[in-house]
Amino acid sequence: MKHILLYAMLLLSGSAFCQKAPDIKGTWKAISKIETETTEGAVTDEDKEVYKAGEKTYTFTAESVTISQGFGKHTEKLPIQVQGNQLFIGKSKKNKQPYILSVKGSHLLLTKTKNKVKKGKTQIETEVVTLEK
Questions:
Q1: Using CA of residue 43, residue 47, residue 52, residue 53, what is the dihedral sign?
Q2: Are 86 and 74 in contact (CB under 8 A)?
Q3: What's the pTM?
Q4: Contact 74, 88 (CB under 8 A)
Q5: Rg, Å, the chain Cα set
């Protein structure tokens, strides 16, 4: 009986790990980028960029993203890899930190979190890029 319950729990919990990736293909306008640093749970630094309409765009295909900045003056094409709700931008590297994809209405949120210990204190750096279709 224990094995049946364990098997059922594994089956049900497995669906939580198989999250379907949101459809990100197409052009998205950057709305904002917020970088927050917390140490031991207290915000120690916050940097907020709010973009004007058309100032920065992300154009996603199945294999790449083209990021256009300065109202189209600068563009950069980078390879991407999507695994579930994780987005890897740029060349593959060992231990590369992915963005977590989430959709809220017409907004696509790209969230990246880095944890590190500095002088014995836990620091968490969070980057949230908000895009709009």
A1: negative
A2: no
A3: 0.78
A4: no
A5: 18
pLDDT digits (tens, 9 = 90+) for 47-101: 999 999 999 999 999 999 999 999 989 999 999 999 999 999 998 888 889 999 9
For 34, other C-beta atoms within 10 Å of its C-beta total 15
Which residues contact residue 45 at a Cβ distance below 8 angstroms, ignoring those fewer than 6 apart? 35, 36, 37
Q: What is the pLDDT of residue 1?
A: 39
The predicted model gives 21-49 an average pLDDT of 93
Alpha-carbon dihedral 47, 50, 71, 91, rounded to 10 degrees: 50
Q: Which two tokens stand for residue 10?
A: 């594994």
The pair of three-digit structure tokens given for residue 60, joined into one six-digit string: 């996603």
